[in-house]
Amino acid sequence: MMDMNPHIATPLEWAFIDRVRSNIHVPALLDLGDQFRLLRTKYGAGKHVEDLVGYAMKMPAKMRADELGRVWDDVDRVSIDESSLASLVLYTNVFNSCKYDLSTKWTSFELPCQNCEYKETCVTTQLEHPVFTRSLDHLVKMLKAEAYFAGRDHVELSEDIFPALRRVMLHRLQVKPEFAARYVDAQAWYDAEVEQRILSLQEKWKQAKETFDTINKALTEKKDAEAAEAFNKFRKAAKDIVSLKIVEMLEPTLETATEKRFKQLYAKALAMDKAGYTKRDLTESDEFNSLDRTLPPKFAAKVQEFREKLLARLQGVTEVSEAQYGDFVANISAVEPSASQMANITYNHRYALDDGTSIEVRHEREKYVIQFEAATSTLADTIRNFSLKAG
User: Fold this and answer.
1) Model's pTM, two decimal places?
2) DSSP 181
């Protein structure tokens, strides 16, 4: 047990403060009645007591240490059910949730909070330090104490969580100056920025738990594409990190369930890269267009990255000299006959070929600049390779 003046010039190390189980806020300024009673205690009836602590030490103890120990034994016997324990993680994660892993983040890295899609529901962005798992143990102890003093032998989370959470968290939270400046004291900040936020998030947590059950059921029934679609849909719509973390607990299981389909699709993309492909293969294929409905984010991102690489291969800019232009047209016409229309050159002209290829030709200082978006990889490679050979 310790006391601390909130105006102390050199605050205690945060790592030490995190080891303090709970706090009780005691106002230093008393009302007039309290001040009079204090004065009478110290100086009334001929007394002169400047040191109230020393004075109290001489008075009979209200409770001996062994008696206090037995009270704590009783408190420990207060039960807390499994569902309540699971919910505690959500409450404590309010104080450390972030898109980044804050447990390993360099202190010099500045979080891009201003551009974060979750900033409106985020408490962590207002804190100098996130609060991690030690607070969970202390919260369980304080919840049992709340229930004990309420005369119950079990924790009622709806009744006990907010007073217990405040006592366990308030001393741990070092608020950034720009946010602290908006409030008269830590209590006012906590009321507005923490409790009100948690109240608004509880419905979102409920929805996240329902989505978790839906995905888990689909995975159990081997409906991995259905599970992936529900996962990605929730992930895009999520407005707070804690809700997202609930559903993301299933991501490893989802990846295991969809790994075979991911490998098949990735192998197909690799084969297309070697054997040749059309733009329509990439843009009109149900397999490629449904990535966010059939694969979890990590797998979908890998396939999408390769798909973008293949699409980029169909586009480019090259140069051909005036003397080489006729051979250039003949070469690409062998692949796509409608390119022969380019022989009748019109400066700065865009040609639309029958296969869907678009080629823009610009004349610049005795050469032609060719900008193309090919419909097939064969034609794109022909255009690009001619320029390389001619060079």
Assistant:
1) 0.77
2) T
